[in-house]
Amino acid sequence: MKQGFAGLVRYHVKRTAITGGLEAAHLLARTRLLGEARGRGAIFTLHHVRPKVRRAFDPNAHLEITPEFLEEAIVTLRRDGYRFVPLEELSACLGSADTRPFACFTLDDGYRNNLDHALPVFERQDVPFTVFVTAGYVDRTHTLWWETLADLLSACRTIRFDFGTGAENVASESLAEKQAAFNRIAAFVHAGDEARAVASLNRAAGRHGIDPLAITERLTLDEAGLRNLIRSPLASLGSHMISHRALARLGDREARREISGSAERVEAITGRRPSSFAYPYGDRPAVSPRDHRLVADLGFAVAVTTQPGMLSDAANLHALPRISLNGRFQAARYVTALGSGIPFRIFPRGAG
Ligand SMILES: [Zn+2]
Asked: 8-58, pLDDT tens digit by residue?
């Protein structure tokens, strides 16, 4: 309870700081006080694009934006001088004499709403985009632990969970308790053997009548859905591993097998080897210099992280920064702020 409250306070302080930073960056961008901070361009990260459904407990709210906000973001970036290019053209753009800023759109995990709700917006606005596909979701062999966990905690007042030292009761009655339980289990997933932690979560979900693979089925595109998506010339597919585990914590052989296996799975759908890769989670602990070398060795032209920043000519093509369009900050002025590059000058470690 205490930990949950402290966690909530930390979250709100951090969120307030980020909001304040974005508001300041928006003003600076409008007054051009900080000059040209945006470099050559930016890659934007999206996950779910769907109409908002209000949920009492919504720990993944940052991972979804509405179709209306996606359209507003595109219109805003265009007004701010951006042109939109496919990720496949990124390396050519970095070296080119055309200095107009460019933006690439990417969507991680392969959600059904990318086809149902994002594609119509991209088509209306004529904007190319890349969907990073997790092979284990396409084939319904792997689960999305953060979605499973959100559903489980929403449905239960207490859960039985094994953190590796025997099953224990974890309180999940109040919203603060649910958030504390979410944070604790998320930390457990990120701390050690991710496959074992996710298996433990899936067993806990099963005991409470929740089928994690049914969540995969409900939320993500299968092969037929992906084939529908790529009928649009604006859509392309990239790799996002088989199991969606943090690459940096896998041994060499397993890492290699995951990367090349996911490339083969995409190739089986599109008929050609994917040229782009997105590191699952993509933050500093999840991606190591070994991983940059592995994806380069295995033939990917570019690989993207979720570490925030703008693109420069000197960018490492296998550790590219991206800017998240965050569901908690859905306003045009935040898009202008992010697109200005100013937040990454003010907060070099990232604006969230
Ligand atoms: Zn992902």
From this structure: 545 555 666 667 677 777 766 766 655 567 788 999 999 999 999 899 999
Please state whether 327 falls in left (phi above 0), alpha (psi between -120 and 50) or beta.
alpha
* CA 279 to centroid of ligand 1, rounded, Å: 7
Does 351 fall in a domain? no
Residues 136, 189 share a domain: no
DSSP structural state of residue 40: T
| CA of 48 relative to ligand 1 center, distance in Å | 11
Query: Do 115 and 237 have their domain in common?
Result: yes
Distance in Å, CA 179 to ligand 1 centroid: 21
Structural domain contains residue 352: no
Asked if residue 255 lies in contact with residue 286, where contact means CB atoms within 8 angstroms, the answer is no
Measured in Å, residue 34 CA sits from the centre of ligand 1 at 33
Distance 306 CA to ligand 1 centre (A): 10
Q: What is the largest CA-CA distance in the chain?
A: 61
**Average pLDDT score over residue span 112-121:** 98
Q: What is the mean pLDDT of the chain?
A: 90
- pLDDT of 268: 98
User: Are 290 and 242 within one domain?
Assistant: yes
Residues 68 and 153 occupy one common structural domain: no
Are residues 49 and 66 in contact, defined by beta-carbon separation less than 8 angstroms?
Answer: yes
| Span from the CA of 326 to the centroid of ligand 1 (angstroms) | 14
Determine the structural domain holding residue 198 and report its residue range. Answer: 145-214
